Amino acid sequence: MKLLMFNTQPYEIETFEKIADDLNVEIDCIEDGLSLDNVDKTKDYDAITIQQHGKLEGDELYKRLAENGIKQISLRSTGYEIIDLDLANKYNLKVTNVSGYSPRSVSELVLADTMALLRRLKDYSKREERNDFSWTGAQAREIHNLTVGVIGAGTIGSASARIFRALGARVLVYDPVQRTDLADTVEYVDVNYLLSESDVVTLHTPLTPEMDRFMNFDRFKKMKNDAIFINASRGGVVDTDALVAALEAGEIGAAGIDVFDGEAGITSVDLGDKGYDNDNLKALIAMDNVIVTPHIAFFTDVAVHNMALFSVRDAIKIANGQKALYQVN
């Protein structure tokens, strides 16, 4: 069996080589993302996997995949909003993701951002650059005295909830599905109560139509003025204009942002002197009370390996006419 990996990153090559040996398949890798310009490269392959930010749009792209004998699109990521599921269904293309790749990878970054913001590490670092080693205005709070609100307690959100509870925090959850395995860990509440009561709010939801720009200015205003907001889910669940405005107006105290609107062409790329055109991102990076990372919450050894392995396994299953483990349509 031959598989083609689109948008392959250098850090994935060794993993794919090992997977090919272990599963006795042939894996070829290309740097470009899947598009109408290169879709016909799939003609000589049995299955594909992708990992990219740009949407796969247009009937012709899905039609050509099917005409080339491809039965699936396996994403090496959790989010699948880049796929037009209606078109995938129209051409009998099964779509898979890797929702269980490593929940701790994301939740540990959420914890790291929270602790760094509580301890004001970015602020201290900038002060030291000016030879200012004073303590004024930078007294920290301790996690065990805080209330943490988790919006979306799926696989990743529940891992975050458990980590904060283990550190002694009170944990509130807003999610229409109440998990019985979290019964001794969290309190399920409505979103307005969560926002008003939480010292830290962390977002762990997919980008569905209902969640598009879910965190708007009105919801930021409901938060405590010294609360920390964390987003390591999808950029589109936050109105970034509103986030910047809320921070500038002091409606919230700090933010840790791993995903953001317009990240395609920015994250995972060294732009050097070329720079980038994203005013909101520039504003967030300039703030002493904001930590911005380039969509790296998933980027651990365990997660990278599992994302590659799970996507390849499901691609093989579908190509062989079997049911995939992480099928989403």
TrEMBL record:
- Pfam families for this protein: 2-Hacid_dh (PF00389), 2-Hacid_dh_C (PF02826)
In what residue span(s) does the D-isomer specific 2-hydroxyacid dehydrogenase NAD-binding domain sit?
114-297
Q: Keyword NAD on this protein?
A: yes
Q: Which residues form the D-isomer specific 2-hydroxyacid dehydrogenase catalytic domain?
A: 4-329
Show the InterPro entries listed in the entry. D-isomer_2_OHA_DH_cat_dom (IPR006139), D-isomer_DH_CS (IPR029753), D-isomer_DH_NAD-bd (IPR006140), D-LDH-like (IPR058205), NAD(P)-bd_dom_sf (IPR036291)
Superkingdom, natural source: Bacteria
Secretion signal, residue range per the UniProt entry? none
The record's keywords, sorted A to Z, are:
NAD, Oxidoreductase
UniProt lists the family membership as follows: Belongs to the D-isomer specific 2-hydroxyacid dehydrogenase family.
- Stated name of the protein: D-2-hydroxyacid dehydrogenase
Q: Which organism is it from?
A: Apilactobacillus nanyangensis
**What is the phylogenetic placement of the source species in the record?**
Bacteria, Bacillati, Bacillota, Bacilli, Lactobacillales
